[in-house]
Write a sequence for this structure.
């Protein structure tokens, strides 16, 4: 990474003391220092406030001297605690010797890092390590503006973890691992995990997260993007929550990519294709520019590497002023000298103006390596609520892509389909009208899509239970409504294809 200085950041615990990490983990679990234990102790309001970096409610809830209260004040609230109280809960001398704790003068000790309980997808009790005051951002900004600071779990982290396809794989790559949260997740279903980061401090913290969570160690490598990966290395899964912020300069390693505009995200996506095994997935969070006179969807299509299917979902768009203000708050610049804040704000707007950027999009990018002659690229905007986790929905999307690629209209009519679970029909029209103006099918899980259908489409979807072919169902509908069955067979496959593509109908057999 060059000559980045970490002198004002706390010294980190040793990542070579696996025995100490194991003893510390047992002590934390014995004291119920878990996500469920915190909720029970603090109550929902104080627990939620802690996730917003607001500590006063948690301080009020931990005025006793139980082991759990001691650990919350020590590791989450970063308060000095009397040595004797800590010694009743933790192997304190081991923790001091290996650097998890430090003496603060008098007879008190303090944490050298933030340790935050995190519940795994199957009820695992994990612990995410980060720099002090940087477990979450919140409206007040992170607790340090040091270039090499390492953050804990934020909304982007949990979003990526939720959309990742979770199936057993031989090899996985977590690119830009940070505190190690993605590596921790993929270690549950990958035989071999490689984790990279430009920041050497992040690699050390990721090692601590894995050790304290009882997960296998990862192959940790320092470098930018795919630089630490050999040209002959390929993976079944690549995940990355990269430093995607489009900013003037590269002031903060955890968020600023250091390339112009959205070049870092573009480069990451374009280079991922050659690193994937056949059928492998690469999943990223990204920002992209909305440039004057350019279609943003075309911009993203141009990023997709050859030989890959892609599903790109834009979740949010901000104008350039909103975007600049968001990230100035994130780094705490709004609390700085007003003249400095204004100068930084001006620099962001100068950057956008020079690039003719009018807005910035945020969303998910999933690639899948395919041998298909014509890869499928779907770029869409979906700002509505979804139901996480979505990993299974992502896998099913690409399964449907394969099915539709193999079946022409005749194949669709010969196919059998089933209406997926938790789809409801809504009829929209004026009160008292004999017929609805239109019919809407709506999902109540996954992407929670809604799509308009005509009366034939609604009737077709309603009777799909896998027993009859699509063609036979359409023949029955044609007889019922008095329509030419040949004409109905000609015009309906496009609607069937859309309902399959969007996940309302699933092929049977």
């Amino acid at each position: 990474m060059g000559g980045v200085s970490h002198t004002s950041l706390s010294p980190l615990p040793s990542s070579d003391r696996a025995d100490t990490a194991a003893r510390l983990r047992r002590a934390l679990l014995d004291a119920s220092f878990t996500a469920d234990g915190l909720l029970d102790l603090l109550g929902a309001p104080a627990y939620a406030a802690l996730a917003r970096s607001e500590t006063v409610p948690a301080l009020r809830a931990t005025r006793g001297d139980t082991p759990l209260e001691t650990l919350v004040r020590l590791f989450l609230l970063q308060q000095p605690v009397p040595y004797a109280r800590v010694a009743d809960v933790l192997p304190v001398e081991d923790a001091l010797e290996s650097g998890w704790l430090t003496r603060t003068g008098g007879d008190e000790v303090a944490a050298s890092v933030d340790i935050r309980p995190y519940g795994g997808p199957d009820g695992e009790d994990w612990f995410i390590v980060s720099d002090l005051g940087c477990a979450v951002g919140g409206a007040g900004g992170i607790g340090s503006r040091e270039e090499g600071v390492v953050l804990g779990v934020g909304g982007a982290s949990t979003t990526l973890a939720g959309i990742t396809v979770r199936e057993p794989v031989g090899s996985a790559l977590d690119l830009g691992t940070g505190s190690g949260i993605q590596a921790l997740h993929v270690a549950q279903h990958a035989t071999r995990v490689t984790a990279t980061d430009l920041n050497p401090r992040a690699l050390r913290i990721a090692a601590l997260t894995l050790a304290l969570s009882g997960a296998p160690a990862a192959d940790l490598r320092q470098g930018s993007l795919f630089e630490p990966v050999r040209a002959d290395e390929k993976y079944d899964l690549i995940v990355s929550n990269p430093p995607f912020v489009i900013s003037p300069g590269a002031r903060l390693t955890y968020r600023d990519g250091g390339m112009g505009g959205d070049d870092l995200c573009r480069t990451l996506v374009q280079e991922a294709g050659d690193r994937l095994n056949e059928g492998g997935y690469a999943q990223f969070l990204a920002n992209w520019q909305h440039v004057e006179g350019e279609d943003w969807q075309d911009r993203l299509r141009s990023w997709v590497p050859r030989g890959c299917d892609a599903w790109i979902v834009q979740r949010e768009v901000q104008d350039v002023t909103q975007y600049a203000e968001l990230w100035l708050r994130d780094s705490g610049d709004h609390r700085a000298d007003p003249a400095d804040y204004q100068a930084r704000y001006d620099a962001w707007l100068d950057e956008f103006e020079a690039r003719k950027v009018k807005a910035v999009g945020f969303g998910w990018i999933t690639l899948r390596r395919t041998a298909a002659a014509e890869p499928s690229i779907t770029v869409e905007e979906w700002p509505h609520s979804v139901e996480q986790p979505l990993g299974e929905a992502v896998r099913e999307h690409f399964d449907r892509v394969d099915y539709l690629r193999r079946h022409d209209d005749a194949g669709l009519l010969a196919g059998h389909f089933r209406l997926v679970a938790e789809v409801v029909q809504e009829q929209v029209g004026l009160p008292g009208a004999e017929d609805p103006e239109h019919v809407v099918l709506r999902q109540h899980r996954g992407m929670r899509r809604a799509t308009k259908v005509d009366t034939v489409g609604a009737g077709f979807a309603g009777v799909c239970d896998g027993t009859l072919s699509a063609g036979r169902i359409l023949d029955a509908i044609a007889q019922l409504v008095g329509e030419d069955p040949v004409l109905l067979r000609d015009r309906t496959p496009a609607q069937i294809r859309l309902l399959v593509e969007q996940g309302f109908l699933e092929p049977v057999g």
User: Anything to note?
Assistant: Confidence is low (pLDDT under 50) at residues 1-7.
